[in-house]
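Hello, quick one for you while I still have it in my head. Could you read through the record and tell me how the tokens relate to the sequence? No rush at all, and the record is pasted right below.
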Amino acid sequence: MRGDRLLSIMLYLQSHGQISAKELASKLEVSERTIYRDIEALSSIGVPVYAERGRNGGLSLIEGYETKLTGLDEFEIRALFVSPAEQILEDLGLNRNSERARNKLIASLPSISRENAKRVWNRIHVDISSWRAQQEKMNSFEVIKDAIWKENKLKIVYQHLNGKINEVITCPLGLVSKGNNWYYIASKENGDIRNYRISRIREAIILNEAFSRPLNFDLAQYWKSSTEAFIENLPSFDVSVEVKASLLPRLKFTGRFARIKEVGSQNKNGWVSVELSFDTEDEAKGYILGFADDIKIMKPIDLRDKIVKMAESVVALYRHEDRTT
């Protein structure tokens, strides 16, 4: 956010010639004290900003100084102007703001770079939604966003996977979007940081109590570490199978439970050895049974017997249905 504000200050100073700290603070919705800190930051990186005291004074750039996004190479422009995921911007209420910011950035580029930026925008579009996934209900999303920006404590009513519901007083630290889901990152009153899936938050109430963010907290780094720890602790059930060669392309794109660890070579009978990993044995049984005689289990051997019993149960069920209809 501060980087955006510094750029906005430079553009305001360039377009207005001279502007008061009070007016800048009003336009950017921050305090005058924040504006003066930002001016010091700009000066420290070589931007020639100076303040003129007096009734008609204000902040301005040295005459002749022009702020343009020059120095951006082709790949930096591509990175800057790749289309953001529209669903994320819509959830955050930033669709129009994003478009305005993009137009301002394009306008500030030199003519050659401006054309490159427009080409990037029309060549890459990011859509994070899956084909059939339904959007999760997030009744408390607006309240959570408000608490994050205000830095006020938030009481949430949270429903866990096992159905248990409890109330938690939290200190809002940020939001993370992963796939179609949003996660609320917050610290508890004892300092522990937790992740809460927003679709499971049944109610959120902003408390009239501020809090201090943890020093040097980095949301992106925290999420990366949290994700790595989650993956390391996931349960694992490994299965060695052989599949018909014709099934292999489909196997790579079927189901969300199976993870292909290794694919071997095709033997003389047309079967290919594959190492699969599942979270649980039940997931493995259901997945493998779904491919009927196109896949056979090599290890663990006892899994064969369990799938045979499942298959026999299915046959018995439908034979009974046929006799009674």
Summary: The chain has a mean pLDDT of 81. The chain has four domains: 2-61, 74-123, 141-230, 237-324. The first helix runs from residue 2 to 16. The longest strand covers residues 165-178.
